[in-house]
Specification:
Length: 113
């Protein structure tokens, strides 16, 4: 039985080979661990292009209506200790005065501290 290896995530070359626990591309020299999530896939950016990480502090850049409630998250609201998650709303956080909710990264800006 022949094992088919995935193409290179950098250059899409089909000529990858395995060396110990890593897969290697002979064309571009990229090495990666099979089954590991791609680094680019985990990259979440805010409204101006800053890379967001777990634990960052962000501010809301526009008023956001809270679905199923009459509450509104006002522009300039500072949210501390965000957590990045997969999905359409890629930030999980606790907003002061409202509670736990998901935000889209396009509506926040990273606070430089």
């Amino acid at each position: 039985m022949t094992q088919t290896l995935p193409p290179c995530p950098e250059c899409s070359s089909a000529y990858t080979y395995q060396v110990d626990a890593l897969l290697t591309c002979p064309e571009c020299g990229h090495e990666w661990q099979p089954g590991a999530p791609a680094e680019d896939a985990a990259e979440v950016r805010d409204s101006v292009g800053n890379i967001l990480r777990d634990g960052d502090t962000v501010t809301v850049i526009k008023d956001l209506k809270v679905k199923g409630s009459s509450a509104v998250v006002k522009v300039g609201t500072k949210v501390r200790g965000i957590r990045l998650v997969d999905g359409d709303h890629d930030i999980d956080c606790k907003i002061p005065g409202i509670g736990q909710m998901g935000l889209k990264s396009q509506f926040v800006k990273k606070v430089s501290e």
